[in-house]
Structure formats: C-alpha cells, structure tokens
Amino acid sequence: MKLGSADKAARIGGGVLAASVVLGFVISLLGSSLKNTVQVYFLPMAESFGQQRGTFALATTAFAITYAIAAPLTGALADRLGPGRVLLIGTVSAGIAFLLCAVVPSFAVFVAVYGILAAFAYTMLSYVPLGVLVDRLFSEKRKGFFYALLTNGTAAGFILLVPLWTWLDGRTSWNSVFIGLGVLLLGVITPLTALRFRGEVKPPASASTTGERPSIASALKTSTFAGLAGAFFACGATMAFIDVHLIPFMGDMHVHTDISATSVILLGLFEIVGSLIAGRLCDRGLIKNVLISGYLIRAASMFLISLSTSVVAVIVFGCLFGLSYLVTVVATSMWVLKSFPVEVKGAVMGFIWTAHQIGAALSSQFGAHTRDSTGSYLLEIVVTGGLAVLSVVLIARMPDPNRKLVTT
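Given the sequence above, the corresponding structure tokens read:
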C-alpha cells in the first residue's frame, strides 16, 4: 500500500523533528563537557599551571562573566539568524577551544581561551538557542517537555561524562581528553549540525497593535523580566557550587570517591526526572508552582550539605539538588517563552542568563577565596542556600505567567 502525499509529509516532518531532538541532545551533552571537564580536572589543571585554587578559579570566573555577556548576544542571534545556525557556530567554536586549551603555553593564555572562547561556545550550545529551537519546532502543549529533554544533555554529562573523566584521571592527561573532544566536535558533530539545520525558516512575526517591532529594551523594563532575572541570579550562584566547588568540597570533607561519584550520578539521574516532570507540569500551566518548588528544593539541599557530609546526607543531597537542577531552568525558560513576543524571546532569555552567570561568577570566586582563607566552603554553601530562599519569595509575589502576554 502506497502512502499518500499527506502521510509522506507527516512522516518526513516527524523524522525531521526526531533528528532535531536527537542532535540537540547530543550537542547539549557535548557542550556540557566544556564545564564538567574542568569540574573534574580542577585540581590537576590548577597544579599543571602551578596555581592555587583561588587563582585558577579566575578561569571559571572569566567563563561565567563571558557567558553573562554572550547570552543575550546569542539570544539575539538565534532570533535573527535561527537557532540552528547558532548551534553550528557553537560546535566549531567549542572544538577549536578544546584544542587550544590543550596546548596553551601559560595560565594567562588558558584563561583567555577558556574564559572567553570556550564560554562563547558553551553559550551557543546550551539553553538559550535550544529554547528558541524548541519554541519554533513544537506547539504550546509540548514545549516544556521537549525543552527539558534537549537540555538534559547536562544531566547525561553528570551520569556519563563525569564518571568517564574521573576514570580517565590518572590514566591519561586532561590535555589528551581536551584534544579528543575537540576532534570529535569538529570532525563529527559540526558536519551533522550543518546538514540538519541548513535552510532554516523564520517564524511569522507576532501580532502588534501599534505596528511597531517589539523592543528588547522595553522587554527588559518589565517587572516580569526583573523578577525572573533576580531569582535566576540565585540559580547561577548555587549551580556554580556544583560546577566548580563540589568535587573539591567532597575531597576536603574526606568523602570517599565512590560516595561522591554516586552522589554526582544520582544528581544527574534526578536531574532528568525532575526536568521532565517540570516540563510536563509547565505544559499544563503550572509554571509558577514548578518554579517555586524548584527553588525550595534547591535551598533544602544546600542547607542539608552544610549540616552534614555523612554518606546518607551526601547521597540525599545529590538527589535533592539533582531534582531541582533543571527545574528552575525549564520553568524560567517556559515563563519567558510564554510571556514575550517571538522577535525578542531569545534576547530576553539571554539577558535572564546574564543574571544567572553574574551569580555564578560571584559564587565561583567567592567560594574559592573563602576556601583559601578559611579552609572551608561552609560560608559559600549557606549564603547560596539563603539566596535560593529569597528567590522563592520573589517568584511567589509575581503574577502567574498564564494570565497574559507581556507587552513591549
């Protein structure tokens, strides 16, 4: 029995969506390696450059600051050029960054390459362009779930890549790992991305009562942006503890490597579970409740690890933080996609991430210096947990995003 033209079109359309989801997930997974490699090799890399933790953290701080600058630029590019083209540029940049980082002659050059080029690449391979991609490919009732699915490359990084880097530590140098990743990105992922996203089509413009194009500046003046950005600052601050300081903290507290590895794996597993549940609930109109719950769980996890580093506490911490890890990202992103006009969604999401990365940069440096000066990460953990509590209060006072589109 031959398929009709409508059936063929439906199958082709379904195949294109499936290919986009798979490729988007793989890009998200490999993009996460720009961060989780440094997370695992933080101490060996610092030692290879002859630097203390606080000084080497300048590289991760520069990364976070560059991300803060690059996020709105990436969002604006995704709005204008299309998210697929941005992802393509990101794969090339990431591949080059990995290769350069592996062979740089000095710490100063490493900071420049990792803190600038790698950060720009990560921005183009992660949440902002993937959010615009999902917004353009899927209907309102499916965006939350598929955004969670694509961005779960980060969770897969915790489950698959972090244990792999940990296993390779001592068996090969971090430089070799970086070279391998660079070759993989440039030789395999870049051609696949170019093939899939050639010929992107822009979505129709949003309806406007004034006939004027929606303004990014006007969007940034809204209370919706201010509230989401303020809360997302705390998200960045707490995530920086995981991305930069968690493994060194576990070492300081003499947590057995098997336990810390198990905690990180569970963090990744629960990240997947939490994000997919959050995506489904957001698609059902519960964005605000999901976001409040995410920050509450985040705060609870931070206060737990500040009180105890027993085996049970470390395992429960991994589960709780993992459960919240992408919940705040998914709910915040869906709030933006639901509230702002199509012409500025990417840029607004980018500026939201600017607030996130400012929090991450401050937390990265604050944690390193308090550890160097006090011998403990306790102050970092308590302060960032407190910020998560403040985010709950801030979001609770905001109007529900399902009420109306934000006018710009």
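The first helix runs from residue 5 to 40. Try to locate this feature in the token string yourself.
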